[in-house]
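Sample intake sheet
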Amino acid sequence: MNDTNKETNAAYEEPKKKVYVKLIIFIALITALFIVLGAKFVLFYYRTHGIGGHYIYKGCDAEVVHVLPEGLTDEAISDAVINVEYGKEKNDFDKYDCLAESHYLLGVQNVDDTHCKVYVMSLCERYRYSYTENVSGSSMCRMIDFQNENGEWVMTDSWQPRDGAGYTASIKQTVPKEISDEAVDTQIHIKELMAENTNKAKDYFEKLNDSGSVHNAALLVHSAE
């Protein structure tokens, strides 16, 4: 009788153990997923906002020069800024939208033969229906990491200063000292950048009126000093 009970209990306990093992594995996987996602969120927050005035994403000690490396164009910088500012949202814009980006080169750090950090004072704006209808825009210092992939410079990462009271502190923490004062001044060359964006948008909408149609996606217009 006892042997029968033992066999019955063993037959009952075995499936329970398997269920517990599966449950433990499931909980472990969910926990690992939350840890990975949490780490990515914290890293993103550090990069964009900082915590306690400290930032993970900083510049480097390479010499600051004022010439873009060979092959890296102002158009590539404009594309990078527009993609950061509007992302996939721009794919939903129609022919009555115009995205204009103008920038002033603050400096470049050539980290090595295939990597560089570009610092610009950028004005990125969206116009709707007319060059006089500016519906959104941002003017700020930006740092963009580029990597040369088979002769083409591709953005690999970007940084922008913290909003509000943390703006100056985040720039001082991240941007090289020799250009940080200039990077803090949001009004630097702002009139010229605004004029460049307005002219680009004006040209776009004049061509739109003349032709009556353009491609569906918003035209990306580029300008740089």
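Comment: Residues 213-220 have pLDDT under 50 and may be disordered. Strands lie at 64-65, 97-110, 115-128, 134-149, 152-159, 219-224.
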